[in-house]
Amino acid sequence: MPSRPKLPEIDLIRAIAIIAVVLIHSTSGATLLPIGSGSQTIFFILNKASLFTVPLFIWISGVVLFYTYYDRWGPGMSHVFWTKRLQRILIPYVLCSLFYYLFNQFMFHGTVRFDMIYFIKLLISGNASYHLYYMVIIVQFYLLFPLLITMVRRSTTVRRALIPIGIVVQAGAYFIHHEVYPLPEYASLFVSYTALFAFGAFVGIHYSAIAAWSERYRHLTGSIMCLAGATFVGMLLLHQYGRASIGNSWFELALLVYCMAVPLWAVQWSLRRLAASPKLSIVLTALGAASFGIYLVHPALLTLWGRLTPNQDQIWLYDLHTIAAFFIGVLGSWLLIRMYAAMKKGSA
């Protein structure tokens, strides 16, 4: 069966997600400023409002995988799929883990040593750098994908109930982790994100219908996204200021609703930009296409910027330093990726 048409809007959604990733990492230090200061409040809100980004990337993976393979999946494709996907992600993951394992030692301690056993543990957990846990999650979904798509294709019930199943699995893992027994490396386990992956899978199967639905009800999905996001960030602010005691489950629920509304808003927003803003769309498409490289590179640039610039004693200087970190993280990483691509093309 022929491949389905490419979805150009996906790169725009990737651009949204990678901008949010860099925003989280560039403002993380600023959230530790004295509570009550205007700068801390603004950066705290920006940081927490961007927490949809990893769920959005996982949703994208679910969409792309099921959109690409659902109509043409067949027996014997598992090996080809695993070989193609895992080579594409495992080699960069191992190399980047090795780089950050050595780079962070040098930048923060001034010395470098290599312990193979410790490095293997870092690889398994995704802890060679603070951003690499995402790679471990994606590898797990890649390993499970042949089983998941076979189940979905064979069972109408599973196919129709994908989203509820994903939510139940994620909620069950959350309950076990918080109420029964802590799951090791819980943040790096696929069960922490099954709701978004299943949502993405459902969208990938029924993409045209859901894209049309998201456009028809864009005001509703946008309102839900804003309300859920404001509720999540508002509860965090109340907790930070000690104004309310809120159970963790409420944070998780608000974040889940927020993260499931963001993709629906992002689809219709991206489609509208492609139709109405061609110049902006070209820039965002290029940014989205480079998002994987930006994701891998930007923590090194942020670390260099933080270590090589002097301490900012005045709050306005710290604000400028944080804003500059964001642009260095996005634009600096993007420039490096484009230079690498040009060198690779020139040597081919």
TrEMBL record:
Location in the cell: Cell membrane
Record bears the keyword rRNA-binding: no
Domain of life: Bacteria
Keywords on record: Acyltransferase, Cell membrane, Membrane, Transferase, Transmembrane, Transmembrane helix
Protein name: Acyltransferase family protein
Protein family per UniProt: Belongs to the acyltransferase 3 family.
Signal peptide: none
Hydrolase among keywords: no
Record membrane topology: Multi-pass membrane protein
GO molecular function: acyltransferase activity
One Pfam assignment: Acyl_transf_3
Record lineage: Bacteria, Bacillati, Bacillota, Bacilli, Bacillales
Transmembrane domains' residue ranges: 12-37, 49-70, 90-108, 128-149, 161-177, 189-213, 220-238, 250-268, 280-298, 318-337
Domain Acyltransferase: 8-337
